[in-house]
Amino acid sequence: MTSTTSQQELFRFLEDRFACAQACTECARACALRASLVDPDGTEQQELVRRKGIMCAEVCDATCRVLSEDSSMDEAGIRAQLEWCRTVCLECAHVFDKYPGTEESAAACRACAETCTDFIATLV
Fold first, then answer.
1. Residue 74 confidence (pLDDT) above 90
2. Can you tell which superkingdom this protein's organism belongs to (predicted)?
3. How many other β-carbons are positioned within 10 Å of the β-carbon of residue 1?
4. Would you say 55 and 93 are in contact if contact means Cβ atoms under 8 Å apart?
5. Quick one: which H or E segment has residue 31?
6. Which residues, other chains included, contact 79 with Cβ-Cβ below 8 Å and sequence gap of 6+?
7. What is the helix (H) or strand (E) element at residue 117, kind and residue range?
8. How far apart are CA 113 and CA 107, in angstroms?
9. Model confidence pLDDT, tens digit, residues 76-99
10. Cα 73 to Cα 43: distance, rounded to the nearest angstrom
């Protein structure tokens, strides 16, 4: 029975890790696209959207790499990376909320933050 339970926990851990990596990839793509559509010489608000989008894309990309490639990172390191990703995604979503036409990108950021939160819960 213990072997089955530990296998189920391992499968859940791997599924949650994969789901989080996938959400990070989708968020990075949405944020990079959003940032590329903003005029770099635009208004202060447009510059904020562009900067936050770039930052979110970079953090999500790094988080995805940690989750999918870096098996040497310990649980504390993974947790810190996930918390950083969650924070940046929520900040980015709040900025996107104030700029018309960014609803889909904001939703991708929120979905990534939620998935990071769910994965953090499995690390407890």
1. no
2. Bacteria
3. 5
4. no
5. helix 2-37
6. 120, 123
7. helix 103-122
8. 10
9. 999 999 999 999 999 999 999 999
10. 40
Amino acid at the residue 110: R
CA contacts within 13 A on the Cβ side of 112: 37
Q: What tens digit of pLDDT does each residue of 19-29 get?
A: 999 999 999 99
Which are the contacts of 75, defined by CB distance < 8 A and separation ≥ 6?
123
Looking at every residue in the chain, the average pLDDT score rounds to 91
- Could you list the beta-strand ranges (E) of the chain: none
Residue 33 amino acid letter: L
The percentage of residues in the chain with a pLDDT greater than 90, rounded to a whole number, is 72
Residue with tokens 């999500």: 60
